[in-house]
Structures are given as structure tokens and as C-alpha cells.
């Protein structure tokens, strides 16, 4: 007995089986829960660069930095009143978390008191209270005042003549171990935010901690996608009522959808997946796509008047459709990005869950004939008109495809986790302000990790030249013409030279002058022991600063060169910078890493993922269709003809994205392969009708309502994602919706022409 016959004859048993499976998945959800998280690590590939970046965070970081943007209400953050409020705020942060913020107020107070920057806040506050705004202006003109450091902390509108600036940034440093504990990091950031809160007369502070931002993105994405899912379901209900005109059929279709969503969430929980803004869109995807199976089944039952006949005739097309759609999603397994792999696996499982639920509940649908069809005749008339002008239409399609192909070739790739933030969100506006108004605070840093003996004079000389060369590279941030590079050389100078920095230490200065020249290179008579002794002394004086640039190990066996960059996170710019840095390091045992280089690797992976997933989708879909239709009609060309319209549609959507300046991102990278996987459903149903002996007009007439309803629900569900407050999800929804429109048009109106040509050539041969 065929499975379709068994389902039709044993509907209660099959329904009970579906019920039991649903209970199992519900139990998994209840016991294990559904976890949500938004972490950059999930969007990073696993390779040498990423591993080196993790090593820098774990081994070379003794601080967890939180930026705090502070704007002045009176227009000048350098006024005495503003500085006092900043110090009072810092004092509360210190008392609450033990963090030691670094701000303009700290530097000004320390210089006035001629003391180290680490003096207590009571002294700093008293120091500022005892001076006037005129004293502050005079201080900035003092020869040894560290204007370079101060200007980095001030907004770009800093007026050196009148000593005014609209805003400043405070660097709140917490223990570096927080990088290894996300929950504790979030807790500490909340403490900082709470301590910085309150009513201020002269300043407006904003805490922009990374974990707080991630939490906000996750919260907004959860809330927005819940609303969008509800709206998509409501829209689907309206469409189903228009198509079915039966309450029972609508309820059964929605029930099959609910079952599929429960199974998918249960499967995610069983695999211990944490949902992120990308995977959270899957229920919306299933709402639009999964309901298609119910529509095709119901319309076929209505057409044939028998569940058994309907299942027998349409189940093959539905299975083939689900298989090719799943292939499109599973093609993301080839990606090195964990989030894309999870998205592909969960989506594919969800697709087959929708099919299983829809087929199992099919025998419960009513069998009555529907009312007069309105959609199918319109589609049939359009097909007739196109058939009369098929040569012109095909030429027009060919020209568009060439143009879109050229456009697709020039599409850009982009990766910026901050672009998950809604534009109208207050936090987004503050981050944008921070990026646009502060030099060196764009969050970009390139790290060069070098593993070798750092006490060798020859090695230090090579590192010195790497730094010198890197300072002249494009996209390296310069303040007052000086490249912003932190290394063992800059840290030692900071403590050895009174005019260089705030951390001057007389004891270390004496040791430094004995071992090193003024530029930082070891003297000719300097030995390994001398250099190691200098490191050891500075480690005892400034362990945090030293750990930031050198690995102590057994014998100072590694170092990091930290370079501030400003590439705009554009692939072309990062590529140029990466190439220049590779030239700078030459044959040294070094790895270029850091967040911006990780971004570059992701951009390369985005392109690679698009090509691989598209190739795999086309290849396996073609193999599956060839296998099926070669067996049915002994034709090798038929599988290619059925696949061709959706291949063209995938090219069109990438070309359209390029024309409208929509880049390939972590969300839109899968658009081309998904357009094939989702759109091929229409090709398969048209082809099956055609192979039943119908001509192209009859094919559309017989399956038009089901095709149109399926396309409409899919377009609507993804289209609703375009109303998401998250820009990346919005672009994903818009791109997929347009891709489905292209697929429907090409499959419904162009595929019949191609099938007619195939039939004519086959008959002629």
C-alpha cells in the first residue's frame, strides 16, 4: 500500500502519531527551554584569524572597556561645572563596580594637582572645585599638557583656541575576565549604567556597553518578530478564507502550521541551539512557505473530489517541492558561519515539518467543490496573451537577464553588527553620534599577534620597523598626524618620558635610558637580561598596561601591536589595509587579526557562502529533478527547463539588490539560493500539470488559484519582515519578497512557453 493511500485510509492513526510527536517536542521545549542570544561570535567563521583574535582577548587583555558618551547641556563639556558632574558620576561608578574610568576630567584634575592619574576622586573633585574656567584654558596651553590623549576623548568640534567641545567619551575599564563570562559582563554593564544614572544639571551621560547593546537588539528583535508573526498569520487567515471559503479548511491549515512551528522550536531546543535575530525569522518563513502545502492539497482535493486521489496525484509534487526547498536551506551548511548553518538546518527541518503536518491533516479537509474561480481565468488569459508574443517576451527576458547578471557581478558585501540596531532607537543615535564625532572611537582595531622571544634586540628592531611602516598605511587613524598604534614601544615611552604621557615613572625612566634609545630601540650593548629586567620592572609598575601589549609567559614569548583603523568597514578598504599590513610584517611569524580583520574574513565568507550555497542549490535541485523527470519522461532536458526560471530569478534578485545598493550581508547572503529553493515550488506544480497532458493554458487554469495563493502568502509573510525595526531583517524580507515575485512571474508565464518548445521539439524528433 502506498503511503498516500495509508494516510487517506488511516487518518485517525496518523493524526494520533502527529499528536504524539508534537507532545514530545513540547516536552523538550518545556524541559530544556528556548534560548535567545545575540553574540558576534555566532556570526564569525572558525579560522586562524578568529582564533588569534580570541587569544588576544584572553591573553593580552586585562580590561573590559565600556564607552560612555557624555554630552554637555550648555554646549561645552570642558566647563568646570560639567567636569565636576563627570567626576561625581565616575565616583559612583567606581564605588559600585570598582571600575576606574578614564576621562578628560581625570586628566585635567591630575595635571592641576601635579599627581598620578590614579589619585582618589575626592582629591580630583576638590582640585576641580578650586579652579576656574580660565585656569582650564591656561592648562591646555601648558607645554607638557597631553593634548594628543585629550583630543581623542573629545568630540571633533573641539576648539583648541577657545577650549570648547560639545561632548566627550569616558572609557570605563572593568576586569578583562568578563570577556569569558557573558552573563557577568552584562550584569556589570547594568551596574555601570545604573550608577551613571540620575539627574544632572549640566551633562547627559549614555552608557554604550556591548552586552547592553546586544541585549537591546535581542529584545527588540523578539518583540518585533512576534508582532510580525502575528500579522503574517492574520494575513494568511484572510488569504485562506478568500481561497477556501471554509472555516474548517482554514483551521486545519493553521493547525498544521502551528504543529510545524512547535516541531521546529523543539528541534532547536533538542540541538541546544540559541535563537538569534536570523533564526527567529524562521516561524515567519514557515508561515509564508509552509502554508503552501495545505493550499495545494486543499485545492487538489476540491478539484478531484477525493482525498485519496488528491494525495496520490499531488503528493509527489509536494515532496519534490519540499526536497528542493530544503536543499536550498541546507546549502548553508557549507558556510563556516555558525549562525547561517543553524538557520539552514532549522529551516529545512521546518519545511518538512510543514509538509508532514499538512499531508497528515489532509483527509480531514472538506471535499466539496468550491465556488467559481476568479484568479485562474485571469492567469490563463495572461498566459494566452504571452503565448501570442512569446518570441518578443523571451528576447525581452534574455536582455533583462544579461543586464541583471552584469549588475549582480558588481554587488558589494558588508558586515556591521551595529546595523542590526533600529535607526530610530535612542542607542543607535548615540552610537552614530559617537562614530561620527570622535576620532579613533569607531570601534575598529587591527591587532598584529607576534609569537617569539621579545627580549631579543634583533626581534625588537624588526617589530619597530613593522610599526613604522604600519603608521603610513591607508585607513590607519591619525591624530595630529600621529598614527594611533599601541605597542610595547609606546607603553614604555609612556612611563619613561615625562612629556609623552601621564604615567611617567622616574625609576623606570632611569632603567629605560640605560637599555633603550629615545626612539625605543635597544642600545648596542643591551643584552637579553637587560631587556627582560626592563620589562619586569615595568610589569611591577604597570601590570595592566604591559599585559595589554606583551605576553609574559616564561620569557616574554609574544606581543601584540594594536592599530586603530577607520575603513568604514567596507570590504575594499579592509582588503587594501590587510594587503599593506601583510607587506609590513614580511616573513615574520605574525597573524593579522582584530575585530576589523575578522570583519574582512566574514565579508570573504559572505561571498564564498553565496557562491557555494547557490551552486549547491542549483546542482542538487537539478540532480533531483533530472532523476525524477528522466524516469517519468525519459528527457534529460526537462529537468534543466524546469530549473531555468528560478535560476534566472535568483540572478535577477541579486542584480536588483546591486542596483538599489543593497549589499550582501549576513542575512541577505542566502537570498539567491532561497529564491531558487522557494520558487521552484511553482515550477514543479506547473510541470506536473503540464505532464498530465494539459497544455500551458490548462496548466495555469487548473493550478492557478493554488499557485497564486501560495505565492501571495509567501510574499506577504516575507514582505511583513520589511516592517521590522531591525534593518538587516528588513532588507532580508524585502529581498526575498521580490525574489518570490520574480520566481512566480517566470514560472507561471515563461515556463509554459519553454515547456511548449520542449514538447514541440520532442514531438518533432
Task: Briefly say what this structure is.
By secondary structure, the chain is α+β, with helices and mostly antiparallel strands. The chain contains 29 helices and twelve strands.
Describe the structure.
With 765 residues, this protein is α+β, with helices and mostly antiparallel strands. It folds into four domains: 1-33 and 219-371, Up-down Bundle (Multidrug efflux transporter AcrB transmembrane fold), CATH 1.20.1640; 63-208, no CATH class; 372-410 and 635-765, Multidrug efflux transporter AcrB transmembrane domain (Multidrug efflux transporter AcrB transmembrane fold), CATH 1.20.1640; 439-599, no CATH class. The chain contains 29 helices and twelve strands. Strands 6, 9, 10, 11 and 12 form a five-stranded antiparallel β-sheet that branches. Strands 3-2-4 form a three-stranded antiparallel β-sheet, with helices on both faces. Strand 10 and strand 11 form a beta hairpin. Helix 5 (104-112) crosses helix 6 (121-129), helix 12 (282-289) runs antiparallel to helix 28 and helix 25 (595-633) packs antiparallel against helix 26 (636-659). The longest helix is centred in the last third of the chain and has 39 residues, at 595-633. The mean pLDDT is 84.
Amino acid at each position: 500500500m502506498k503511503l498516500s493511500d495509508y494516510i487517506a485510509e488511516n487518518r485517525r492513526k496518523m493524526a494520533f502519531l502527529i499528536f504524539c510527536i508534537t507532545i514530545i517536542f513540547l516536552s523538550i521545549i518545556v524541559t530544556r527551554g528556548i534560548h535567545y542570544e545575540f553574540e558576534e561570535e555566532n556570526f564569525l567563521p572558525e579560522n586562524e584569524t578568529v582564533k588569534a583574535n580570541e587569544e588576544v582577548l584572553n591573553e593580552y587583555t586585562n580590561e573590559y572597556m565600556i564607552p560612555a558618551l557624555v554630552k554637555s547641556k550648555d554646549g561645552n563639556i570642558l566647563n568646570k561645572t560639567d567636569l565636576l558632574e563627570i567626576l561625581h558620576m565616575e565616583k559612583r561608578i567606581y564605588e559600585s563596580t570598582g571600575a576606574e574610568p578614564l576621562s578628560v576630567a581625570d586628566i585635567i584634575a591630575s595635571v592641576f594637582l601635579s599627581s598620578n592619574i590614579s589619585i582618589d576622586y575626592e582629591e580630583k573633585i576638590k582640585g576641580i572645585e578650586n579652579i576656574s574656567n580660565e585656569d582650564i584654558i591656561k592648562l591646555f596651553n601648558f607645554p607638557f599638557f597631553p593634548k594628543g590623549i585629550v583630543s581623542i576623548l573629545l568630540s571633533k568640534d573641539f576648539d583648541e583656541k577657545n577650549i570648547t567641545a560639545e561632548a566627550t567619551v569616558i572609557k570605563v575599564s572593568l576586569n578583562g575576565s568578563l570577556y569569558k563570562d557573558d552573563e557577568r559582563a552584562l550584569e556589570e554593564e547594568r551596574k555601570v549604567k545604573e550608577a551613571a544614572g540620575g539627574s544632572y544639571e549640566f551633562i547627559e551621560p549614555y552608557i554604550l556597553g556591548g552586552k547592553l547593546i546586544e541585549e537591546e537588539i535581542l529584545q527588540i528583535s523578539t518583540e518585533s518578530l512576534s508582532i510580525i508573526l502575528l500579522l503574517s498569520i492574520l494575513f494568511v487567515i484572510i488569504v485562506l478564507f478568500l481561497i477556501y471559503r471554509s472555516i474548517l479548511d482554514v483551521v486545519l491549515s493553521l493547525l498544521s502550521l502551528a504543529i510545524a512551528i512547535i516541531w521546529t522550536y523543539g528541534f532547536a531546543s533538542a540541538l541546544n541551539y540559541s535563537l538569534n535575530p536570523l533564526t527567529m525569522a524562521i516561524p515567519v518563513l514557515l508561515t509564508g512557505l509552509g502554508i503552501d502545502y495545505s493550499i495545494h492539497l486543499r485545492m487538489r482535493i476540491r478539484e478531484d473530489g477525493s482525498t485519496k486521489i488528491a494525495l496520490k496525484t499531488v503528493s509527489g509534487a509536494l515532496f519534490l517541492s519540499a526536497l528542493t526547498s530544503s536543499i536550498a536551506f541546507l546549502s548553508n551548511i557549507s558556510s563556516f558561519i555558525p549562525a547561517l548553518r543553524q538557520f539552514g538546518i532549522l529551516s529545512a527541518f521546518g519545511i518538512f515539518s510543514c509538509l508532514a503536518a499538512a499531508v497528515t491533516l489532509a483527509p480531514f479537509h472538506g471535499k466539496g467543490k468550491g465556488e467559481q474561480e476568479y484568479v485562474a481565468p485571469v492567469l490563463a488569459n495572461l498566459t494566452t496573451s504571452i503565448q501570442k508574443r512569446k518570441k518578443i517576451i523571451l528576447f525581452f527576458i534574455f536582455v533583462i537577464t544579461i543586464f541583471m547578471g552584469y549588475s549582480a557581478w558588481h554587488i558589494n558585501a558588508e558586515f556591521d553588527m551595529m546595523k542590526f540596531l533600529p535607526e530610530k532607537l535612542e542607542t543607535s543615535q548615540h552610537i552614530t553620534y559617537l562614530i561620527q564625532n570622535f576620532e579613533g572611537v569607531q570601534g575598529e582595531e587591527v591587532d598584529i599577534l607576534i609569537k617569539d622571544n621579545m627580549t631579543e634586540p634583533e626581534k625588537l628592531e624588526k617589530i619597530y620597523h613593522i610599526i613604522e611602516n604600519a603608521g603610513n598605511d591607508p585607513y590607519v587613524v591619525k591624530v595630529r598626524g600621529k598614527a594611533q598604534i599601541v605597542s610595547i614601544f609606546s607603553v614604555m615611552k609612556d612611563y619613561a618620558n615625562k612629556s609623552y604621557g601621564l604615567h611617567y615613572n622616574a625609576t623606570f625612566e632611569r632603567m629605560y635610558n640605560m637599555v633603550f634609545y629615545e626612539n625605543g630601540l635597544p642600545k648596542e650593548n643591551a643584552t637579553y637580561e637587560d631587556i627582560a629586567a626592563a620589562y619586569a620592572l615595568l610589569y611591577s609598575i604597570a601590570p595592566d598596561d604591559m599585559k595589554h601589549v606583551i605576553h609574559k609567559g616564561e620569557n616574554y614569548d609574544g606581543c601584540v601591536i594594536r592599530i586603530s583603523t577607520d575603513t568604514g568597514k567596507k570590504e575594499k578598504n579592509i582588503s587594501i589595509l590587510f594587503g599593506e599590513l601583510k607587506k609590513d610584517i614580511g616573513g615574520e611569524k605574525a597573524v593579522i587579526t582584530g575585530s576589523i580583520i575578522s570583519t574582512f574574513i566574514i565579508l570573504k565568507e559572505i561571498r564564498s557562502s553565496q557562491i557555494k550555497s547557490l551552486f549547491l542549490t542549483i546542482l542538487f535541485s537539478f540532480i533531483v529533478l533530472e532523476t525524477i523527470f528522466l524516469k517519468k519522461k525519459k528527457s534529460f532536458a526537462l529537468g534543466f527547463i524546469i530549473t531555468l526560471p528560478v535560476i534566472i530569478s535568483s540572478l535577477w534578485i541579486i542584480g536588483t539588490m546591486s542596483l538599489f545598493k543593497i549589499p550582501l550581508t549576513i542575512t541577505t547572503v542566502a537570498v539567491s539560493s532561497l529564491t531558487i529553493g522557494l520558487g521552484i515550488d511553482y515550477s514543479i506544480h506547473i510541470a506536473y500539470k503540464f505532464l498530465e497532458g494539459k497544455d500551458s493554458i490548462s496548466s495555469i487554469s487548473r493550478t492557478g488559484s493554488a499557485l497564486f495563493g501560495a505565492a501571495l502568502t509567501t510574499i506577504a509573510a516575507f514582505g511583513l519582515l520589511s516592517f521590522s525595526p531591525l534593518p538587516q531583517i528588513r532588507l532580508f524580507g524585502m529581498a526575498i519578497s521580490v525574489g518570490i515575485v520574480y520566481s512566480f512571474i517566470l514560472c507561471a508565464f515563461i515556463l509554459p512557453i519553454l515547456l511548449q518548445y520542449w514538447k514541440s521539439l520532442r514531438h518533432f524528433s
